[in-house]
Design brief:
By secondary structure, the chain is mainly α. It is built from 6 helices and no strands.
């Protein structure tokens, strides 16, 4: 498997198994990064260590976020949907949740939180649970058929 293509390219399609593989990889890398950050903070405790921690953590977050979006786009391609659906499933829930905290009335905030949660559930089902299009679609061949033929 070409990991760079898998994690940082929007070309083609991936099945649910590879989507969940990427999700597990992100969790493991994040967990190791948190442990490493705790080790740096408790061990060094200097300003230089804090700068390294913030810069390194920020770069890691951006890398995981970008990679997560590219993997989600390929998963949406497997469902025969355009990558723009990532806005609905990944960006919009965060924006709605952010807008619900103190900017609006309590009732409006509750409605925005509910909508964000429903969009998140829809995205979870669409990306992680439903089978992709059987056979080729406009984004490429069926990844399960390609694996089966190889």
């Amino acid at each position: 498997m070409d990991w760079q293509m898998f994690l940082f390219s929007t070309d083609g399609r991936i099945n649910r198994g590879k989507y969940w593989l990427a999700a597990v990889l992100y969790v493991v890398v994040s967990f190791v990064a948190v442990l490493l950050g705790l080790f740096i903070v408790t061990g060094a405790g200097s300003d230089a260590a804090a700068v390294v921690l913030y810069v390194g953590g920020g770069l890691l977050f951006l890398s995981i976020y970008f990679s997560g979006i590219t993997v989600a786009i390929k998963r949406l391609h497997d469902r025969d949907k355009t990558g723009w659906w990532c806005v609905v499933f990944l960006v919009l829930p965060g924006l709605l949740q952010g807008a619900s905290t103190g900017i609006v009335s309590e009732m409006t905030g509750l409605v925005l939180t509910l909508i964000a949660g429903l969009l998140g559930i829809w995205g979870f089902v669409e990306l992680g649970c439903l089978r992709g299009t059987m056979g080729p679609n406009r984004f490429g061949p069926d990844p399960l058929a390609v694996e089966g033929a190889a």
